[in-house]
Amino acid sequence: MSKELQSNQSLSSLIKPSFYRNSVQRLAILFASSAFLMLALPTINLTGSKLLAQNAVSQDLDAAILYQLGVTRYNRRDLQSAEYAFRQALQRDSNIGLARNYLGNILMEQNRLDLAVQEYGEAIRLIPNFGEFYYNLGLALQKQGQKEAAIAAYRQALAANPKMAAAQYNLGVILYEEERCQEAIAAYQEAINLDRNNANAYFNLAIALQQEGQLEQAIATYRQILKLNPENTVAYNNLGSLMVIQGQPSEAIAIYQKAIGQNPKNALAYYNLGVTLYNQGNLKEANAALKRARQEYGEQGNTERTTTIDDMIQKISEYLTPKKPQHTQTTTPTPNNSDVVLPTPEMQTPQMQTPEQQKPEKSTHVPKTVEQKP
Fold first, then answer.
1. Highest taxon of the source (predicted)?
2. CA 313 to each of CA 65, 80, 224, 225, 249: distance values in angstroms, whole numbers, following the listed order
3. Angle, nearest 10°, between helix axes 249-262 and 267-279?
């Protein structure tokens, strides 16, 4: 038996029926709150076939015409008519691997995942060395929650096409979910090597590095994110919080202020700025920042956070309210550890975003999708 056939059989053995399971991985990140992996899995955004211009689709002219009709309808987003045309083509010639792949795309877009997996498997059987087919199979398996099978499919895609950045990226996502953090880091780094503009890969890499306690590398990665996207307020907040952990509060304050400059409605940036200023003894500025944070959280309807901030503001106000001292006091006292203790700055908590997998809480940071390969 050939190695290729053994590999395909090994992959097939991992594919099993399953119901999709929501799985949000919480990270312990050295802060009072926790951070989520910002997962940016692919949604469907399909293109024409690379093989179409290179090879005859079928020796049966009618089958080839029906296939071409399916591609045309598919590109027009008439999926029902496209599916019919592809099935008609396959009735005349069942060995058109490209038609099987297109059917898999249509079925996956309709969330008919078991059937999509079957069609991709047939496409691979007919054209076993085409990495994009393995990639699409990985997508369908990933949406099903069959993570080990999806990992195997993505590795097969990369064996056929080592420069497929999207496969490396999605591999990193699953490995991270499986708590194989070092492998995930390696996959994200490879994805970045293949696509230096993949901001999602940088972001997920930063979270994974942070999870592993590699804070200097995480900081450097957040800075790279901000070079790619200066409006990424999530990265600003997380970077600022890491600077606090590293004992650089002044730089953290400057970073929070930049975050606010990018998004004046960023409640968490105001909150973290207020906490950091307070811990530096800048009570008046801390009070002002926390009041603005309270205003923004109030507009969001976040009563839990507004109540917490109200308690903070009240305690700070006790220091700022003039009292009748028993002796002359000319300066505002700086609170010490026995006085008011505010929590440490928090990490931003962008939600895990997957196609039809989860319905996360609303977030202002919406990740871009990865294009599915046909």
1. Bacteria
2. 72, 59, 35, 33, 21
3. 160
Is-contact 67 85, C-beta < 8 A?
A: yes
| pLDDT band at residue 145 under the 50/70/90 scheme | very high
User: Are 58 and 67 in contact, with CB atoms under 8 Å apart?
Assistant: yes
Are 259 and 240 spatial neighbours (Cβ–Cβ below 8 Å)? yes
pLDDT in tens, 229-241: 988 888 999 999 9
The mean pLDDT of 277-300, rounded to a whole number, is 93
In this prediction, residue 30 carries a pLDDT of: 24
Q: Is 200 exposed, middle or buried (0-12, 13-18, 19+ CB in 10 A)?
A: buried
Report the pLDDT value the prediction gives residue 203, as an integer from 0 to 100: 93
CA Rg, the chain, in Å? 26
Residue with tokens 């940071």: 365
Q: For residue 266, give the nearest of 277, 278, 258 by alpha carbon.
A: 258
Mean pLDDT of 174-178: 95
User: pTM of this prediction?
Assistant: 0.74
Tokens representing 263 are: 């998004």
List phi, psi (to 5°) of 20: -70, 135
